[in-house]
């Protein structure tokens, strides 16, 4: 019987926002695994007792990125971690978009402004400012050129917290075509979803946002699948990925571009794609078996 830790965050005092976690745990147990839902920062957990530690919904990690990446190294030293610790470290900093672009992957153009660097001109058209370490549109906001002073204050707030900012043009294709999320598991396309724009004009960077508005199933086009596969192939050293999500939007030319590559804790949206549960379980069990072979 494989022992599997399905790793999440501690939501207290609020209830967990991971609707997929109980579904996945039940399915793994029904398939014969000894599966536990555990908090990544629970110091009492014996990680070496598990055949596989599966990162699922560690959705507070971006607030504690250094602590989280140190945890991944600790776990990887005693058992199999999915995804691998080095992949997680690379993917926690969205400066990876620059590496993907350099490798020829179509991406949303991105400029980075680290603490101490001048802002300069942020954009001649509408643009987005957000941190390189963030999730759920945390500290993200959309600005027009006449809101430069407000955007600079936003930058100052992030820099004061030691965060590097990223500035991207607002991709208008998201207003018509939405953002498509292609989910891969066990090296194969699992399913895809589409959501509407997250950032509304005038919403403050520190306001709460709906992370997945208008979420619906989606059938990816051949062009979308090709870009997603190019992005995955460009991950440094071509590691074995148990799971991945590639988020795409259409550029001004109407062609898909990578908005984000989620290799740490992407929401699987199993509640939207219940038929995908058996494939996820099979891939997880195969990864656990490979770890003990």
Could you provide a short overview of the structure?
The chain is an alpha+beta fold and 293 residues long.
Structure description:
This protein is an alpha+beta fold and 293 residues long. It is 28% helix and 24% strand. The chain is globular. The chain has eight helices and 13 strands. The chain has a five-stranded antiparallel β-sheet. The protein has a four-stranded parallel β-sheet with strand order 2-1-3-4, sandwiched between helices. It has a four-stranded antiparallel β-sheet with strand order 5-8-6-7, covered by helices on one side. A hairpin with a 2-residue loop joins strand 9 and strand 10.
**Which strand order does the major sheet show?**
11-10-9-12-13
How much of the residues is beta strand, in percent? 15-25%
- The structural class is alpha+beta
Count the E strands.
13
Largest beta-sheet details: 5 strands, antiparallel
Element-level helix/strand string = EHEEHEHHEEEHEHEEEHEEH
Number of helices, counting only DSSP H or I runs of 4 residues or more: 8
The proportion of residues forming helix, as a percent range, comes to 25-40%
Shape: globular
Determine Rg (CA atoms, Å). 19 Å
Task: Determine the mean pLDDT.
Answer: 93
Low-confidence stretches: none
Separation, N- and C-terminal Cα atoms: 13 Å
């Amino acid at each position: 019987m494989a022992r599997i830790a399905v790793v999440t965050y501690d939501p207290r005092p609020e209830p967990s926002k991971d609707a997929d976690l109980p579904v996945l745990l039940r399915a793994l147990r029904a398939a014969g695994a000894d599966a536990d839902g555990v908090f990544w920062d629970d110091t009492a957990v014996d990680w070496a007792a598990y055949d596989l530690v599966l990162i699922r919904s560690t959705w507070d990690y971006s607030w504690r990125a250094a602590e989280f990446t140190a945890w991944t190294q600790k776990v990887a030293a005693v058992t199999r971690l999915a995804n691998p610790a080095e992949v997680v470290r690379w993917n926690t900093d969205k400066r990876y978009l620059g590496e993907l672009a350099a490798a020829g992957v179509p991406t949303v153009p991105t400029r980075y402004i680290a603490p101490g660097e001048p802002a300069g001109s942020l954009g001649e058209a509408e643009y987005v400012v957000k941190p390189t370490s963030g999730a759920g549109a945390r500290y993200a906001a959309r600005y027009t050129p006449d809101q430069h002073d407000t955007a600079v204050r936003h930058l100052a707030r992030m820099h004061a917290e030691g965060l590097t900012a990223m500035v991207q043009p607002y991709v208008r294709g998201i207003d018509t075509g939405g953002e498509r999320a292609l989910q891969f598991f066990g090296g194969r396309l699992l399913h895809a979803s589409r959501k509407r724009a997250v950032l509304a004009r005038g919403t403050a960077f520190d306001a709460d946002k709906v992370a997945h508005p208008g979420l619906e199933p989606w059938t990816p086009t051949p062009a979308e699948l090709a870009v997603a596969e190019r992005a995955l192939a460009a991950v440094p050293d071509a590691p074995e990925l148990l799971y991945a999500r590639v988020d795409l939007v259409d550029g001004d030319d109407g062609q898909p571009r990578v908005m984000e590559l989620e290799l740490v804790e992407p929401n699987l949206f199993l509640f939207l794609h219940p038929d995908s549960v058996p494939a996820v379980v099979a891939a997880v069990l195969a990864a656990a078996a490979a770890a003990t072979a």
